[in-house]
Design goal:
Structural class: alpha/beta
Shape: globular
Distance between the termini: 20 Å
Length: about 80
């Protein structure tokens, strides 16, 4: 399965672990989040590129890891064709 993943700084280490585990299971993972830890960037808009990839069918599923799950859902739901929960 093609899976997109992104996280804010609070979920950065979990994202790395999930990418490794999902890849080991045979999934293709695309990271739509920052590639380095940035404690100053924790606003949930990081999830918008991930939501756009899901809406555009570049990936089949999206995983967003965020300290503010509600905020991430609100940001993702701004993308046409996406209903995050």
């Amino acid at each position: 399965m093609r899976i997109g993943i992104a996280s804010d700084h609070a979920g950065f280490m979990l994202k790395k672990q999930m990418k490794k585990a999902l890849t080991k299971q045979g999934h293709t993972i695309t990271d739509y989040g920052p590639s380095s830890l940035s404690p100053t960037d924790d606003y949930p808009d990081f999830v918008v590129p991930l939501a756009q990839a899901v809406a555009g069918r570049k990936v089949q599923r999206g995983i967003a890891i965020c300290g503010s799950g509600v905020g991430a859902c609100i940001a993702a739901n701004k993308v046409r064709g996406i209903r995050a929960h």
